[in-house]
Amino acid sequence: MARFYVLSVEPTLFGDAALVREWGRWGRSGRRRLDLYRGLDEAAEALEHWLLRKTRRGYRIRTAAGDNEPESDEERGA
Length: 78
Known about the structure:
By secondary structure, this protein is an alpha+beta fold. Helices cover 27% and strands 32% of the residues. The protein is built from two helices and three strands. Strands 1-2-3 form a three-stranded antiparallel beta sheet, with helices on one face. A hairpin with a 5-residue loop joins strand 2 (17-25) and strand 3. It starts with a strand and ends with a helix. The relative contact order is 0.17.
C-alpha cells in the first residue's frame, strides 16, 4: 500500500511555530494536523521526534527539492 507522511514546520499568524503533519494514501485525500509550539526550537525538536518515529516504521525521507535522489547510475541500480 502506497502511503505518505509529510512533516513541516511553519510560522503561525501569532509568531509561534506549528508542526504540520499530513498523512494518508497516495491518490486519496489524507489527514492533516497542526501542533502548536511557543517557538521554532520546540517545533524543530518535535519534528525530529516524529521523523525518527516514522523512519523506524519504514517511511523513507524525501525532500521537496529532491536532493535525496541517487546521483550516479550505480546508486540507481542501473
